Amino acid sequence: MDNVPSPFRSWNGVEAWQFVDGVRLHAIGGEQILLCRVTYEPGKQVPDHDHEHTEQVMAIVDGEVTVTVEGETRDVKAGDVIVINRGVRHSLFSENGVTFFEALAPVPLDHVPDRDRDLVVGPDGGSHHVER
Asked: The domain 17-116 is classified under which CATH number: 3.90.550.10, 3.90.190.20, 2.60.120.10, 3.30.70.3280?
């Protein structure tokens, strides 16, 4: 068991990674799933895109964000959850800022700031992870 990576990780003391302008995230994941804490500064957005191989579930914890999924637009706030299946076009804009957690599966490596620090990789070596 000497080669088994520790399952314990922390975002404490780790600066959030700027994913796109004004959108920062922390990420920690394993073989099958990635968990991110995402923060948008006021007036920031992630433009229309999709994740070809990855499903995404977002849970809003603070603030509000306008989310458009396949042409349907909703303003969501703390307590709301959005499920975006793989290959589905979506965009986000937050007028006043927002924080949410998102789970993505399989792990999209373009959301992982530091693969050594942020991934707990088991015996399959992350073989299910996907590049964008």
From this structure: 2.60.120.10
User: Residue ranges per domain, the chain?
Assistant: 17-116
- Residues with Cβ within 8 Å of 96's Cβ and at least 6 positions away in sequence, in order, are 42, 63, 64
The vertex-104 CA angle with 103 and 106, nearest 5°, equals 140
Model confidence pLDDT, tens digit, residues 4-58: 789 999 999 999 999 999 999 999 999 999 999 999 999 999 999 999 999 999 9
Q: What are the Cα distances from residue 43, in Å, to 20, 40, 54?
A: 13, 8, 26
Dihedrals phi, psi of 33, to nearest 5 degrees: -145, 150
Q: C-alpha angle 16/19/24, rounded to 5°?
A: 35
